[in-house]
Amino acid sequence: MNRRYTEEQIVKILQEAQAGTRAEDLCRKYNVALNTFYRWKQKYGGMEVSDVKKLRSLEDENRRLKQMVAEQALELRAAKDLLSKNW
Question: What predicted TM-score, i.e. pTM, was given to this entire model?
């Protein structure tokens, strides 16, 4: 997925909005749709750049853990299949 803005840049744009710049003006300035701005605001509203880095780290860890669980489930299924055939 090719993103035009990084999470850090999005947070800085939202901070401009918190400082009083109108959403429409920011959308025009950064060439983004108003819907995109409000989606960003819903996801990243009130965050600082350090919070976004923590969020990204947690999302990466969650992705790795889900992959580990999926691999273990496959191994368990294969072992059960093998045992059921031998007995």
Answer: 0.64
